[in-house]
Amino acid sequence: MIEFQSTWGWPAALYLFLGGLGAGMFAAASGLLVLGRKRHRAAVAAAYGLATLCLAVGLLALLWEVGSPLRALVLPRSFTNMGSWMARGAWVVIMALAVCALAAALASKRASKALARAWRWLPGAPKLPRKQLLRVCAVAGSVLAMFVAFYTGALLASAPGVPFWNSWLLPVLFTVSALGAGANAVAALTVITGSARKVSRVRRRLFAYCSMGVAVAEGAVLTVYLVGMLQGWGALDPVAAKATAVSAHALVAGSLAVPFWALAVGLGLVGPVVTSAVSLFVRKRAGLALVVVGAAGALAGECALRFLFLYAGASADYVGSTLAEVVSIASIATPFATMF
To answer: What is the mean pLDDT of residues 222-235?
Structure first.
């Protein structure tokens, strides 16, 4: 007997999306900071601020999913059991949140001036090294962001009872997906803040190629993942293999096929590739509009991917399967028993 899991709800799916989006946005904004320097200061500051907001809201959603957020915060076991992915992720998300908030403050003109004034209150303090601190935050925050993106998948992969999630490819998929969502979001912010007007045609082509490359990479990992699950890769027994096949079939051709192909694949993967490719051959204004459209579709698709993967997780009911086999054997043996 195979049943879809009902333990994890929409707050967990929201965390998986917002945590990955915040991590991807911070990493992409840090790359933009290195490439564009002062030209993209407004876009970088906005990206850092939104990344901080995404991580904060995602962490609240995860605590909500726990059921007792205050209890989860005060229990020592929640943060000291480093053998658990929940504890590791809690520490890394908190550190990433702190670094993202500091980077957002340093990248913003008003906030950095307020920090400089507060810094001068310290006795004997030199001038605030804003640029150096921002670079340190960009590097350290990018490392933490990659761990957060990986952790969103590792959290599901370590969950017992759902064979569809128990694969090392899931953290890889969610990491690549987070980078794609973050890159598209930062590209849209460069257009919205007006800093995209200062980008040369060569650099716009580079951004488009990066967007297409990440989408193709994510599509390849997703294809391998689903094909493997349909064939029961990594399953330790026939019940687990059947559970993985049921989950994959629900996404590919079952009850979740329409939102999967329309949202996760159509908007999340095909859309950014098409808009990025077309933006290379149209005028600059139309190309920038396509960047925003493609980014909006990519974010919707990446969000749908998390929700669909969460709800498609089929749990392997070993007790129910054993009882079903016993009943089946008994029904076959009954006619023969009546002969004697």
So the answer is: 87
| Residue 121: φ, ψ to 5° | -70, -20
Alpha-carbon radius of gyration of the chain: 24
Judge residue 87's burial from the number of C-beta atoms within 10 Å of its C-beta, 0-12 exposed, 13-18 middle, 19 or more buried. Answer: middle
Distance CA 105, CA 111 (A): 5
Rounded CA separation 114/300 (Å): 36
Percent of the chain with pLDDT over 90: 40
Residue 278: half-sphere exposure toward Cβ, Cα within 13 Å: 16
Determine contact, residues 222/173, Cβ cutoff 8 Å. yes
Measured CA to CA, the distance from residue 228 to residue 164 in angstroms comes to 10
Alpha carbon distances (Å) from 173 to 157, 166, 218: 11, 13, 6
Q: At what angle do helices 201-230 and 284-311 cross, to 10 degrees?
A: 20
The whole-number pLDDT of residue 9 equals 83
**Best-predicted range by mean pLDDT (12-16, 234-238, 335-339):** 12-16
pTM, full prediction: 0.84
Q: Are 33 and 44 in contact (CB under 8 A)?
A: yes
Q: Is the dihedral of CA 154, 158, 159, 163 positive or negative?
A: positive
- Take residue 167 and report the two structure tokens written for it: 């694969």
Q: Is the pLDDT of residue 143 over 90?
A: yes
Tokens of 58: 């995602």
CA–CA separation, 178 vs 174, rounded Å? 6
Tokens 């054993």 map to which residue? 322
Say which residue the tokens 């209150």 belong to: 121
* CB of 219 closer than 8 Å to CB of 269: yes
Q: Two tokens at 194? A: 């007006």
What pLDDT, on the 0 to 100 scale, is given for residue 232? 80
Q: Centre a 10 Å sphere on the Cβ of residue 95 and count the other Cβ atoms it contains.
A: 15
In this predicted structure, what is the pLDDT of residue 324? 34
What pLDDT shows up at residue 283? 82
125 pLDDT exceeds 50?
yes
